[in-house]
Amino acid sequence: MSSESIEMAKNRGYKLLEESEAALAAGQIDEAGWYQRGMAVITPAYLAGDNPRSQSGHSGDEAHWRQARSLVAEAMDRDGAFLDVGCASGHLMECVQLWAGERGVRIEPYGLDIAPELAALARSRLPQWAERIWVGNAIAWVPPRRFDFVRTGLEYVPRRRQPNLVRRLLDEMVAPGGRLIIGSGSEEKDQTRHGPSQEEEVASWGFGIAGSLRRPHHHDARLEYRVLWIEV
Ligand SMILES: C[S@@+](CC[C@H](N)C(=O)[O-])C[C@H]1O[C@@H](n2cnc3c(N)ncnc32)[C@H](O)[C@@H]1O
User: Fold this and answer.
1) pTM of the model
2) Domain parsing of the chain, residue ranges
3) Residue nearest to atom 7 of ligand 1 (CA)
4) Which atom of ligand 1 is found nearest the CA of 56?
5) Tag placement on the chain: N or C end, fewer CB within 10 Å?
6) Helices (H), ranges, 103-197
């Protein structure tokens, strides 16, 4: 059993997020400052990574990465275009195409990142897709097209904006008949968690959850990897 605090085990950016939320609530920073604080930490850390996983914020090996992230590909039930909101090094874009392809599902990946340096890294790693990797903040970015599958993490915007992010992605980015996929993230198991699951929280904002998947965590018995999706 890990001795790490459950919040840190779920999300290594937990402390930064909590501090940014507190500073925002206290009026010490505005929302632009909230994003700047995140980028100031994430961008140099990812750029210092020596492999495409660490350049996407993942500290594990390939097997760990696949166990944690391939739920995203499993949420894709048919061929289509996929936008990874927060694409970092672009590694999830290429892996989702590969993993879905193993089931005969053909995915065309696209990427968006708020950090210009990370979008540039993704473009240099994946020159064949350079024209479809964009820089922008998901809460405001106007896409040039719609996508059958859009993936995001809710922690990419201040807590009070999370329902707006979901609404915006559904209204502006997901194609008719498509899916907004949230995750995959680490969550506490139902038996031990205090407070609502992410699925319960998103449902409480008035969104219908169309499906979800979960699997055991790579090494922490308290946690599971989960994704959920909403259909348009
Ligand atoms: C943990 S990485 C995710 C990498 C990969 N997509 C995955 O799921 O494994 C999160 C990325 O989201 C980006 N990001 C954070 N907030 C964002 C926002 N509001 N709009 C667009 N990108 C954002 C960060 O710069 C970072 O590269």
Assistant:
1) 0.96
2) 6-231
3) 92
4) 4
5) N
6) 116-125, 162-168
